[in-house]
Amino acid sequence: MARANGAPTNGSAKGGAEITFLEAIRQAMFEEMERDSAVLLMGEDVGVYGGAFKTSEGLLERFGWERVIDTPISESAIIGAACGMSYLGLRPICEMQFIDFIVCAFNQITNFVAKGHYLWNAPAPMVIRGPSGGGVHGGPFHSANPEMYFIHTPGLKVIYPSTPYDAKGLLKAAVRDNNPVLFFEHKFLYRRIKGDVPSEDYTVPIGKAVVRREGKHLTILSYAAMMHTSLEAADALAKEGIEAEVIDLRTLLPLDEETILTSVKKTNKCLVVHEDTKTGGIAGEIAAILFEKAFHDLDGPLVRVTSLDTPVPYAPTLEEHFLPNAKKVFSAAKELARY
Amino acid sequence: MTKQMSRELTRQQYLDLYYYMRLNRAVEDTMVKLFRQNKIVGGLYSSLGQEAISVGTAYTLQKKDWIAPMIRNIGALLVKGVPPRDIFMQHMAKYDSPTKGKDGTSHFGDLDNLHIVSPISMLGDLIPVMTGVAIGGRYLGQKVVAMTWIGDGGSSTGVFHEGLNFAATQKAPFVLILENNLWAYSTPVRRQVPLENLADRAKAYGIESYIVDGNNVVAVYTTAIEAVERARAGEGPILIEAKTFRRLGHAQHDPAEYVPKEMRAYWEARDPIALYEKFLTREKLLDAAGKKEIDEKLDVLLTAEREFAENSPMPPAEFAQGGVYCTGDDCHKIRAKWERSIGEVTPPKSSVKPVWTVPGFGSGRGSGGADAPIHFGDTPAVMEKPANNSRPAKVAAKPVAKGAKKARAAAASASRKARR
Questions:
Q1: How many helices (H) and strands (E) does chain A have?
Q2: At what angle do helices B51-58 and B272-282 cross, to 10 degrees?
Q3: Contact criterion met (CB < 8 Å) for A76 and B376
Q4: Does residue A323 form part of some domain?
Q5: Residue B341 lies inside a defined structural domain of this protein
Q6: Which is nearest to A193 in space by CA: A166, A222, A159, A220?
Q7: Which residue in A201, A267, A327, B49 is a FRET match for A294, CA 20 to 30 A apart?
Q8: How many CA atoms lie within 13 A of B261 on its CB side?
Q9: Is residue A142 among the annotated active site residues?
Q10: Distance (Å) from the C-alpha of residue A98 to the closest C-alpha of chain B?
Q11: Per-residue pLDDT for chain B (420 aa), expressed as one digit of tens each?
């Protein structure tokens, strides 16, 4: 299904269709539940209402009340119950209505679900998914990028896609994985991004990054909504003769070190763009990997373009200032290219 | 509170309860010896005086049922079929222990055979987990009951509420045993909960509850078997408060000097094994010869089990590295065991009525359609006009393809627009 570098080979397969990012997620759940009756969906308002973002629209009618479960507002109970179900060989998908609320179940995820396989040989095949990210004026409690809390937890896998093709293929792979997988869906992309998906069943491998644009002057690493911002900046850079190689990380845990190192050893410069806040963001981890494994290949400093180290502010003027944008990426890249 | 205490046990059942309580205590006595010889790696937590609860409740379960013990529920593990050597080796961090030294004490489980979910130190977390086991078992048609235990202290956690409330809304076949041993480490129950009976917490969830003398194993058993059968029959979760007393400190290091002398004296006079021996003697179910036979049986068994445990090696250091992730079918073949027709939950049949219902809650409809407004993240076009003329940007799935540049430009322009 994928080349060695993780690039999909049939993204525009004939017979496929152009769908939104949101529809890709709905289709993935629908098709997985159709394929395997061990797959269930649990969450707040996922049933009758079809989810606050309509990602489970039509699932209740198709799969019934036992498989599409409206829960109380109890994130720890949702995650805990899903874990219990997974011990019986079921493969529950948990929806966090907003990914911000995942931290309400922090203990359940990090102390129980994640440690089970290591400690007592208990795999927990379950997916925790939900809308994340800012740029839609959701304010400080509806815009979170909480990936790093969980990337620090051995036992979890963390996915954060940027295209409909990847969202569908990675969510299917997550459902079929034997480990707890966190699947973040950037809500800015839900209806803004469309893309082709094939009509036949496919998965995208977890743990593989993909080169979105080839270049030789510097490497830009990004994921989720910032992937599109980075591509926009790369277009502008190209007009100035700077060819940026843009890599979509797609999976943040486990990180695809091979693709990162191959690119940086070619371009010798690395810029990381993420919407998560700066301190403790994944750029720091990537910097450490490069210092350990590509120190002699670096011709310049590792540069980070990230959100500010603040909560996500509400007012559009403040949020715009808080978030990275193509202009900020462009300037940082141009500066880095001078080395 | 409904309570019927007339259930008669068979002679063998009476003797089984006695044997398991004795085994529970003997296993823990052996571990105290090991602890004093510095052979136990971490702490040692005692269930002295609470054996009737672990044994009397777990003894009600069928082989297929699931338990998730707390650290003090050694008796429940033994009733479920865990050999004493596993408990010894866990405490001694041995390589042959169920977790091979990766965790200690009674922190281990068995998903395949004994149906035991491992304890976690964060009390209360197992309540939602076992709710999920109960719902999952019902979904698969297995007719299993899930049981877990919580203390007076753990009943104040947020997950206790979340789990029990969810179990109640789901009418899950789940039984929760609340062991009120009067002390959470050094804090007495009165400082934790302003209730005379912790069973009253059940009222908040609209579920049934029982209160039972936790030092009377027959009372514990007859109460628990009724609860388990009701839960299995679909009556929903049930809470049992077993009143008892923690005879030793929180762990071996704690002399528990904060416990009033009179309180300790009262409960020491009500030792569950001594009380039960009196009952069995009076009912002519046990005599001196029978007791001696059990003494000898336990001695032989535990000597052998202890020897096995002591001879097991420590895990090799590099064993710390592996096993964080399941690597797939070669590691675990995960398959649900269906005991109902999969067809019932697979389209097109799956859209029929559920096996449980919530009165007054019909099959309503959502606001419908792929273009229905969403909470945040709509494109401006959709928000203004929920029709098909919104044309979000297209992004090429194929990374470096012909024509991709145009698509990227479109995405970029959407990105720019939205960021403004």
A1: 12, 14
A2: 60
A3: no
A4: yes
A5: no
A6: A166
A7: A327
A8: 0
A9: yes
A10: 10
A11: 333 334 589 999 999 999 999 999 999 999 999 999 999 999 999 999 999 999 999 999 999 999 999 999 999 999 999 999 999 999 999 999 999 999 999 999 999 999 999 999 999 999 999 999 999 999 999 999 999 999 999 999 999 999 999 999 999 999 999 999 999 999 999 999 999 999 999 999 999 999 999 999 999 999 999 999 999 999 999 999 999 999 999 998 999 999 999 999 999 999 999 999 999 999 999 999 999 999 999 999 999 999 999 999 999 999 999 999 999 999 999 999 999 999 999 999 888 766 666 665 554 455 556 677 887 777 766 555 444 443 444 544 444 444 444 444 444 454 444 443
Contacts of B142 (CB under 8 A, 6+ apart): A88, B64, B337, B339
- For residue B114, which residues of chain A lie inside 8 Å, CB to CB? none
Q: Are residues B133 and A191, on separate chains, in Cβ contact within 8 Å?
A: no
d(CA B129, CA B231): 17
CA distance A244 to B410: 19
Q: Please check whether residues B407 and B262 belong to one and the same domain.
A: no
Choose the closest CB to A192 out of B111, B165, B392: B392
**Residues A70, A73, A75, A77: what is their CA dihedral angle, to the nearest 10 degrees?**
-70
Would the CB atoms of B122 and A164 count as touching at under 8 Å? Answer: no
- Structural domains counted in chain B: 2
> Chain A contacts of B390, Cβ < 8 Å?
191
Domain termination residue (choose one: B319, B340, B356): B319
Residue with tokens 């997988």: A181
Single out the residue of A270, A74, A302, A31 nearest to residue A174, CA to CA. Answer: A31
Domain that holds residue A218: 210-337
Beta bridge partners of B386: none
Of B162, B331, B351, which has the smallest distance from its Cβ to A74's Cβ?
A: B162
Terminal CA-CA length for chain A: 39
Tell if the CB–CB gap between A57 and B370 is shorter than 8 Å: yes
Interface mutation vs chain B, best among A48, A87, A206, most B CBs within 10 Å: A87
Residue contact B128–A81, C-beta within 8 A: yes
B52, part of any domain = yes
Decide if B135 and A49 are in contact by the 8 Å CB cutoff.
Answer: no
Among chain B residues, the shortest Cα distance to A97 is held by: B375
Residues spanned by the domain of B415: 376-420
CA neighbor of B240 nearest in space, from B113, B115, B149: B149
Judge whether A127 lies within some domain: yes
Query: Is residue A4 one of the residues assigned to a domain?
Result: no
**CATH classification at residue A226:** 3.40.50.920
Q: Which helix (H) or strand (E) holds A220?
A: strand A218-222
Q: Which entry of A142, A186, A228, A274 is annotated as an active-site residue?
A: A142
Here the CATH number for the domain that contains residue A121 is 3.40.50.970
Q: Does the beta-carbon distance from B107 to A120 stay under 8 Å?
A: yes
CA distance A299 to chain B (A): 26
What pTM was estimated for this model as a whole? 0.91
Minimum distance, in Å, between the CA of residue A338 and any CA atom of chain B: 25
Option in A65, A85, A211 nearest B354 (CB): A65
Taking contacts as CB-CB distances below 8 angstroms, the residues of chain A near B355 are 66
Tell me which chain B residue has its CA closest to the CA of residue A181. B325
Task: State the number of CA atoms in the 13 A half-sphere of A264 facing the CB.
Answer: 29
Q: What is the number of domains present in chain A?
A: 2
The answer as to whether B219 is a domain residue is yes
Which of B295, B319, B343 finishes a domain? B319
